[in-house]
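Re: the 240-residue chain
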Amino acid sequence: MGSTRLPGKVLRPFVDEGALLPLLIRRFRHAFPVLPLVVATSTNVGDDAIAACAHKEGALVFRGDEEDVLERFIGAMQEFGLEAGLRICADNPFLMTDFAHAVLEEGKRSGADYVSHRVAETPAMQTHFGIFTEYITRNALRKASKMAIPPEDRQHVTKFLYENPAVFNLRWIEADADVQDVPDIRLTVDTANDFAIAQALWQKMGAQNETLQWPDLKRFLVNQPELRRRMWLERTKQPK
C-alpha cells in the first residue's frame, strides 16, 4: 500500500471484479486450483487492508519486512513449507497464466534455481511487458540472502539471481516470437497513467478476462493502436 508512485494501487477500485489484488488471486486460483496461493505483504499497519483482502479471498498470508522483500519471500516459503514457487507481482493485472504454466513446468523439469521468459535476450523483469512470472527456489533465495548484495537487490528479490548466472542455475524461455508484433506494450501498473490504461484495456476486453491467455490478449492488442500509443508514452517516462 506504500507504493511511492501510486499509493494503495493494489486495492484501488479497478473494474467490476474489484481491485487488482483480488482480481489476480481469482485468476491464478482458477489457473492453478491445487496449488497454495500466498500473499506476502509487510508488517506495516498500512498493509492490514492487504492481509484482510487476501484472507477474504481465501489466500494464505505471510507478513514480513517492507524493505527486505527477499527475506519476506524466504519467510513466506518457510512458513508454508514451499521449496519453490511462482512470483506473481500484484500490480500486473495482465500476467499470463499460460506463460506461468510454462515457467512452472520448466522449473520442475529442469531443477533450475530460476526460470522466466526473456525478450530479445533481456530478462522479462527488466521489460515493460508486465505479462511474465518467475519460478524461484527457496534454496536459491537463501543462498542470495547470505551474500553481500545491494539493498535495492533485496527489494527486487530476483534481480541478483538472474544477473549472476555463474552463481545460480538459470533457465530462460525465449519470448521473442510471442511478443514481436506488440513490442510497444506496457501492462505493468506503476503510475496513475498505467492504472488508467490498464482499466481501459480490461473494460474493452470484457468477458474474456477470467481465462485470459496470451494469444487472445495479443490479438486484441494488435487492434488497439491508441492504447498502445499511450503505453509507449508511459514507457518513455518510466525507465526499467
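The beta strands are 38-42, 60-64, 84-87, 114-119, 122-123, 134-137, 170-174.
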